[in-house]
Specification:
CATH superfamily of the largest domain: Type I PLP-dependent aspartate aminotransferase-like (Major domain)
Radius of gyration: 22 Å
CATH architecture of the largest domain: 3-Layer(aba) Sandwich
Helix content: 40-55%
Organism: Neptunomonas antarctica
Bound molecules: 4'-deoxy-4'-aminopyridoxal-5'-phosphate
CATH topology of the largest domain: Aspartate Aminotransferase, domain 2
Shape: globular
Oligomer: single chain
Strand order of the largest sheet: 4-10-9-8-7-5-6
Protein name: Putrescine aminotransferase
Strand content: 15-25%
Largest sheet: 7 strands, mixed
Pfam families: Aminotran_3
Number of strands: 15
Number of domains: 2
Number of helices: 18
GO molecular function: pyridoxal phosphate binding; transaminase activity
Keywords: Aminotransferase, Pyridoxal phosphate, Transferase
């Protein structure tokens, strides 16, 4: 059990002990968790969730970067109920389709940038990434270049936890487990200016990080490289906003060596950065993008890959099945919810709200409230996405020693004081629902300030 107080609540205690007996949690040291008991979350409304002790908590992470339209949206519940009644499942393998899959593909195409108008459905971001890996390799194979199959990604990138996602991602802790990884994946440095640029200006560092791509392409041979894959802004890596010139340089290099550019939009998609897709905010013109999370505001699992003409036409003209897909590709209920979600986003002008109103307000208010805090080394973010570097010494950027898990200390203070922020190493990240109000942003910032103060006290 978590503590004595929790023991007063039999329902909570029951759920905790059932959970400890039977549930293996994702990305969790389950043994350690079982000793204290998992917090039981019982309901959500707007930007808030409640736990079984009745605590109301401001969800600064929108679940897991996904509940973009907030909790308790009746429109999404009704779409699911209606579709459950009409047709709860049918596949799209047997030369068959249904209106949710077809209409959702059209809805997605209405908001994707450029010519990314053909949609392949999956159930999770990881599956979308695996789809990209297989699809770009297959694309080159049908161009007569099966050897053009290396994918290049970045250190500290997160692309999911299937074997494909783990291998493509740059998380060293993940690489050690369940190895060996997939072959023919290469990685280059991440564009983390505050943490890794030394004396370089942002511009110099942007060029240097893009040059790392060119160096890697030349090292393995341009004719062997299928695609470069990157998140417009790294999310789970700690919200790393690249220097302003970075993506334009990357784009030039991909064009120069005829390498496909894939944007992993699982976090950045669906308004998070103030455009429908992060690629628009960051000025990227990808050949293919993955999306999940905000596609259905997390109400049901669904993901997609949007494919531009170059790859789509090759697949369509090639007279052979593409042997890839999932039982639940384009699941009618999940698709119906995603359609309702996109329509709701359009009706409420939510992307414009993030771009012009709440995004700039959030970024400004965070800096006003936290920039001068002794623990805060740097704040970076766009729209409703932010990463905050916690440091021991602001002037030298010195980090806390390894035995002081400053991020976890801060995260626990947040949870105990009614705020969810996530710790990524020594960085604190936030990604609240897009429907957050000005007053709720104020509350988020005030709570964060209080929790940063408590964190400082804990380590002083
Ligand atoms: N790509 C990115 C950029 C992600 O952030 C995530 C999940 N956080 C994934 C892929 C994997 O998505 P999922 O957990 O739905 O498999």
């Amino acid at each position: 059990m978590r503590n004595d107080k929790n023991n007063n609540s039999p329902v909570m205690a029951d759920i905790q002990s059932i959970d400890a007996d039977h549930h293996l949690h994702p990305f969790t040291n389950t043994g350690a968790l079982n000793k204290k008991g998992a917090r039981v979350i019982t309901k959500g409304q707007g930007v808030y969730i409640w736990d079984s002790e009745g605590n109301k908590i401001l969800d600064g992470m929108a679940g897991l970067w996904c509940v973009n339209m907030g909790y308790g949206r009746k429109e999404l519940v009704e779409a699911a109920t209606h579709q459950m009644t009409e047709l709860p499942f049918y596949n799209t393998f047997f030369q068959t389709t249904h209106s949710p899959a077809a209409e959702l593909a059209k809805e997605i195409a209405s908001v994707t940038p450029g010519d990314l108008n053909r949609i392949f459905f999956a159930n999770s971001g990881s599956e979308a990434i695996d789809t990209i890996i297989r699809m770009v390799r297959h694309y080159w194979a049908i161009q007569g270049k099966p050897y053009k199959n290396i994918l290049i990604s970045r250190e500290n990138a997160y692309h999911g936890s299937t074997l494909g996602g783990t291998s493509l991602g740059g998380m060293s802790g993940m690489h050690k487990q369940g190895a060996p990884l997939l072959p023919n994946i290469e990685r280059i440095r991440q564009p983390y200016w505050y943490g890794e640029a030394g004396d370089m200006t942002e511009e110099e560092f942007g060029i240097a990080c893009a040059k790392a791509l060119e160096d890697k392409i030349l090292a393995v041979g341009p004719d062997n490289v299928a695609a470069f894959v990157g998140e417009p802004i790294q999310g789970a890596g700690g919200v790393i906003v690249p220097p302003a010139n970075y993506w334009a340089e990357i784009q030039k290099i991909c064009t120069k060596y005829d390498i496909l550019l894939a944007a992993d939009e699982v976090i950045c998609g669906f308004g998070r950065t103030g455009s429908w897709f992060g690629s628009e905010t960051l000025g990227i013109k990808p050949d293919i993008i993955s999306m999940a999370k905000g596609l259905s505001s997390g109400y049901l699992p669904i993901a997609a890959v949007a494919v531009g003409n170059r790859i789509a036409n090759a697949l369509i003209e090639h007279d052979e099945d593409f042997y890839h897909g999932f039982t639940y590709s384009g699941h009618p209920v999940a698709a119906a919810v995603a359609i309702a979600n996109i329509r709701l986003m359009k009706q409420e002008n939510i992307v414009e709200y993030v771009a012009k109103d709440i995004g700039p307000y959030f970024q400004k208010k965070l800096r006003e409230t936290l920039a001068d805090h002794p623990l805060v080394g740097h704040i970076e973010g766009v729209g409703l996405l932010v990463g905050i570097a916690l440091v021991k010494d602001k002037a030298t950027k010195e980090l806390f020693p390894d035995n002081v898990d400053i991020g976890m200390i801060c995260r626990d203070h947040c949870f105990d004081n009614g705020l969810i922020m996530r710790a990524v190493g020594s960085r604190m990240v936030a990604s609240p629902p897009l429907i957050i109000s000005h007053a709720e942003v104020d509350e988020l910032c005030e709570k964060a300030r209080l929790c940063f103060d408590l964190t400082l006290k804990s380590v002083s």
